[in-house]
Design a protein that fits this description.
Layout (H helix, E strand, L loop, with lengths): L27 H10 L1 H15 L11 H14 L3 E5 L5 H13 L3 E6 L3 H5 L2 H4 L3 E5 L15 E4 L5 H11 L8 E4 L13 H11 L5 E2 L6 H13 L15 E4 L2
Parallel strand pairs: 1-2, 1-4, 2-3, 4-5
Antiparallel strand pairs: 5-7, 6-7
């Protein structure tokens, strides 16, 4: 996605929001329970996704295994009717979302990206009846983004300007409390300054809103515990070699 064109003042250092705690619905115990509840379905979906990585599809994948699986599991658990995905690239996240909607037997995904690579990457039988794709900058298609969305997935431009745009213009249109996923926040122990992740974390901290992450760099104990859960369910074999899992998950304040 293109970054926002309007100039902004430099970011000032702010305290980061704290990882989500056990008193909230979106926590390690809840995610572990979802793994156990949907283990058989997840096992089948993982094999379908594995085939998309191999020829003749050879899909380029961005999400790492655990963050992709958590996205699928949260979709299964929350059973949204309207999902919005901003940033698709070749469709790896799109297919994970569509797998969940198909397994739920309900829901529609609205995806937005400046390129249409995803159209060629998503299998037609998976998309049929569950997917609408709009090509173009999401900022220029704000009116087309359904304000009835009850699940939001963001993996587009990772600039501070783009984050400020959706915090100011998109989030206020949506219903508070819906699950939100934002990718590429914690590739390291902290989010890099002047990035999307830094802006979103500051925004969450200002509102006292916690987040959940399985980032190996930022939350190694959480990452290790989920790996243990996966191994106990015979889901330990990796789909991808990357293990960063930098995504954060939170409920929209």
């Amino acid at each position: 996605m293109h970054p926002e064109s309007q100039p902004k003042s430099p970011l000032k250092p702010q305290p980061e929001s704290q990882p989500i705690n056990a008193d909230l619905d979106l926590d390690l115990d809840h995610i572990s329970t979802l793994y156990r509840t949907y283990a058989d379905d997840l096992d089948r979906v993982r094999e379908k996704q594995r085939r998309l990585l191999a020829p003749p599809h050879s899909m380029k994948a961005q999400l790492d295994d655990i963050e992709a699986e958590i996205t699928y599991l949260l979709l299964r658990g929350s059973r949204p009717e309207t999902v919005v995905e901003i940033g698709t690239f070749h469709g790896w996240s799109t297919t994970w979302i569509l797998q969940a909607l198909r397994d739920n037997g309900t829901g529609h995904l609205h995806s937005y990206d400046i390129t249409d690579n995803v159209v060629r990457g998503v299998p037609a039988q998976l998309a049929r009846g569950h997917w609408t794709f709009t090509q173009g900058d999401a900022r220029e298609n704000l009116a087309k983004i359904p304000d009835t969305a009850d699940f939001l997935f963001v993996d587009a431009a990772h600039s501070a300007r783009f984050a400020r745009w959706y915090l100011q213009h998109l989030f206020p249109r949506l219903t508070p409390g819906i699950p939100v996923c934002v990718h590429d926040v914690f590739h390291g122990r902290r989010a890099l300054p002047f990035t999307e992740g830094a802006v979103v974390l500051r925004w969450l901290a200002e509102r006292g809103t916690p987040y959940f992450t399985a980032s190996r760099a930022h939350a190694p104990e959480t990452y290790d515990r989920l790996r243990d859960v996966k191994r106990s369910l015979a889901l330990g074999l990796s789909l991808r070699d990357s293990h960063d899992n930098p995504m954060i998950f939170f409920n929209l304040p």
